[in-house]
Amino acid sequence: MSEERPALRVSDITKTYHLGNALVEKLFPKRDVHSRLTALDGVNLELRKGEILALVGESGSGKSTLAKIIVGSTAASSGEISYEGSPLAKRRDRNTMRRIQMVFQDPYSSLNPRMSVGAVLAEILLLHKIVPRREVRAESIRLLKLVGMEEDALDAYPSQFSGGQRQRIAIARALAVRPDVLIADEPVSALDVSVQATILELFTTLRDELGLSILFVAHNLAVVQHLSQRVAVMYLGRIVELADTEELFANPRHPYTRALIASIPRMTAESVNEDVLLEGDPPSPFNIPAGCRFNPRCAFATEACTLTDPALMPVNDAHLSACIRFKELPTFATIPIGLDHTKQEK
Amino acid sequence: MVDAPLLSVTDLALGVKRSSSTNVIVDGVSFDVNKGDRFGIVGESGSGKSMTLRAVAGLLPAGVKVLSGSMLYNGKELVGMARRERRMLMGPEIAMIFQEPMTALNPVMRVGEQIAEGPRRHLGLSRKAAMDLAIAMMARTGIPDPARRALAYPHQLSGGLRQRIMIAMAISCRPKLILCDEPTTALDVTVQHQVLRLLEELCDDFDASLVFVTHDLAVVNQTCQSLAVMYAGRLVETGPVKQVFGDPRHPYTKGLLDSAPDFDQPDRPLVPIPGVPPNLAHRPQGCSFAPRCPFVEEVCLQTPPPLFEVEPGRSSACFLSDEIFKKVIA
User: Fold this and answer.
1) Model confidence at B180, in pLDDT bands (50, 70, 90)?
2) Between the CA of residue B198 and those of A276, B3, B57, B147, B194, what are the distances in Å?
3) Contact with chain A for residue B189, Cβ under 8 A
4) A266 in contact with B at a CB cutoff of 8 Å?
5) How many C-beta neighbours within 10 Å does residue A56 have?
């Protein structure tokens, strides 16, 4: 039995930024070790065909950097991205660029305020030669309908629309070139709750009807839980846990994932969180802790955690965790309340 | 004997005056905050929730004026109060915490000095004593190594630490009323959790009341006891958080709750509210929510509904609230 090829495979992607004077560094190597920022540190990920995969993590975890590298707007320092089994070149041709499209967080800044919606769509349709010139208008209308907008939007400018409508236009623009993969970087976090739901619904429809594979970058776990089939949790430039959505939230096998889940503000009074699991801020990406990168904040850390830098290990067929103690973690529901306080006092 | 409320806002209207007309952005808002209360104001962008809070703080942006109504703080009228007198209230009596600590802090002043400024002016402390107090307050907000961090500039600190600095600044003169404008929106979920916990703790310790403006229903649930829901510049529902969330009595509140993902009910479908909020310059004649309301009837289009008491301590600005929600329950 041959396994179906993933839509997209990210292999060992690393991204570092050098901040500081290159000449000084050359002259005095190692003098300023903190001038190198590691945004991504060996990330492996597969986006399956027709799935919505969520990428979650705190700010600075590298999730947006990864999204940018996948669409090709930023180059990786090392590693490889393959699309449908074949690696993508450093400089992508127009056809591969077309297949992977991006939807940005802020629909207020991602649309050109001086171009009408029709002009935005026409530009990209003609550039990529999707349809002949005389069919551009009909195609634009089809795209607007696809995202739930009316034909009269064509002659309007972005400023005439609300945030939710702008995000629909941005999605229509991404869909114009008939991509197979959509990378959505926090597409609903700038929107009001009542509008957010319509955009989430749209993503589900697009996946079902067009068979799109969607990488959904987000920080709101309640949204992720609603939308995605699988979730990858990032921490300081690494994926620390990856599992099916239901499995991840029911049986998290990485202490960081547990802390994230415990921090979600709850809607019903009965489920108000009583235990704070995570103290302090994430460490600086200039100076990643030795051993497991989560160990300084981890309630379960032992001596061994400061020595080995764990890779992702299989918990079961569909669940990976980068915690060397994943087997020893207590059942999730029974995490003792106030665990963090005992750690603080020591 | 019942104490008078600490803050009592009655029929507050805010607007932007133009040469020919006045654009009303907040209309007929009334609420009381008692001593020790934690009161939430929720609404979507443009609902007027932040403007209401800014009016209480006396920090309305240029052009926005209080058109009518009254705001009593501890029995003193804030509307029309002399600026000098008002300024003496800010700090020792009322303090505000803003959404984005990076823009609210002075980027060219060390954070310790920024915190010490208030106590020096309002409590008459010496430079040294005020700095000691600042460091103590930073320690109180859980900032590790406060003496060293006091010498840092805002850009050298993370978002979570900056928000703690803001909180330390707000509590440094022991205010009785703390106003928060989306204090955790810019923070990560884990840090948000810490900051909310801290705010709650401090309010209890200092016996301060809290007015908390946010768009996040779950955050209100975790922080506040009672809330007001705003829509298009008006209050549409008020009451204790648990009751309002468990059994909303206004179609807008119900719509909000149905459209928000709830982590504890992953299988509940999200139901968006159709349409968009009205343009406040051309507000519909009747209920502002009528064009988006699934239950709309003739009466809704005629006159704007006032807040009706639906239960002791709860009110809803909907003519049909009794009918609709009895039907929904039945």
Assistant:
1) very high
2) 11, 27, 22, 20, 6
3) yes
4) yes
5) 25
pLDDT of residue B329: 52
- Which pair of structure tokens corresponds to residue A185? 């970087």
Distance CA A233, CA A224 (A): 11
What is the Cα–Cα distance from A41 to A215, expressed in whole angstroms? 19
A30-44, B262-276, B296-310: range with lowest mean pLDDT = A30-44
> Can you tell me whether residue A203 is helix, strand or coil?
helix
Q: Given an 8 Å threshold on Cβ–Cβ distance, is A193 in contact with B192?
A: no
Name the average pLDDT for chain A.
86
The residue type at A114: R
- Confidence at A214, pLDDT banded by 50, 70, 90: very high
Q: Are A101 and A179 in contact (CB under 8 A)?
A: yes
Residue of B nearest to A258 (CA): B190
Per DSSP, helices labelled H in chain B are: 49-57, 83-89, 101-104, 111-122, 127-140, 146-149, 159-171, 189-206, 217-223, 241-246, 251-259, 298-302, 321-329
The verdict on ipTM greater than 0.85 is no
On the question of pLDDT at B327 being above 90, the answer is: no
Distance from C-alpha of B212 to C-alpha of B49, rounded to nearest angstrom: 10
Q: What chain B residue is nearest to A197 in terms of C-alpha separation?
A: B272
Tokens of B243: 């009751």
Quick check: B145 contacting A, CB < 8 Å? no
The verdict on a CB contact (< 8 Å) between B263 and A264 is yes
Tell me how far apart the alpha carbons of residues B321 and B310 are, in angstroms, rounded to a whole number.
8
pLDDT for the residue A25? 63
Flag whether residue A223 sits within 8 Å of chain B, measured between CB atoms.
yes
Q: What is the dihedral of CA A14, A18, A24, A27, to 10 degrees?
A: 10
pLDDT at A185 (0 to 100): 92
Residue showing tokens 């229903």? B217
3-class SS string, A227-264: HCCEEEEEECCEEEEEEEHHHHHHCCCCHHHHHHHHHC
Q: How confident is the model at residue A316 (pLDDT cuts 50, 70, 90)?
A: very high
Q: CA neighbours within 13 Å on the CB side: how many for B16?
A: 11
Q: How far apart are the first and last CA of chain A?
A: 53
Neighbours of B113 (CB within 10 A): 16
Interface test with A, best of B44, B188, B196 (most A CBs within 10 A): B188
Q: Flag whether residue A108 sits within 8 Å of chain B, measured between CB atoms.
A: no
Res A30 pLDDT > 70: no
- Measured CA distances, A60 to A37, A64, B159 (Å): 11, 9, 11
pLDDT score for A275 = 54
Nearest CA in chain A to B186: A59
Burial A44-54 (b: 16+ CB within 10 A, else e): bbbbbebbbbb
Nearest CA in chain B to A223: B261
DSSP for residue A42:
E
Q: What is the pLDDT of residue A337?
A: 35
The four Cα atoms A84, A87, A93, A97 give a dihedral, to 10 degrees, of: 50
Q: Give the pLDDT score at A280.
A: 65
Distance from CA of A148 to the nearest CA of B (A): 12
pLDDT greater than 70 at residue B226:
yes
CA atoms within 13 A on the CB side of A66: 38
* Contact between A222 and B257 using a beta-carbon 8 Å cutoff: no
Residue A345 predicted with pLDDT over 70: no
How many residues are given for chain B? 330
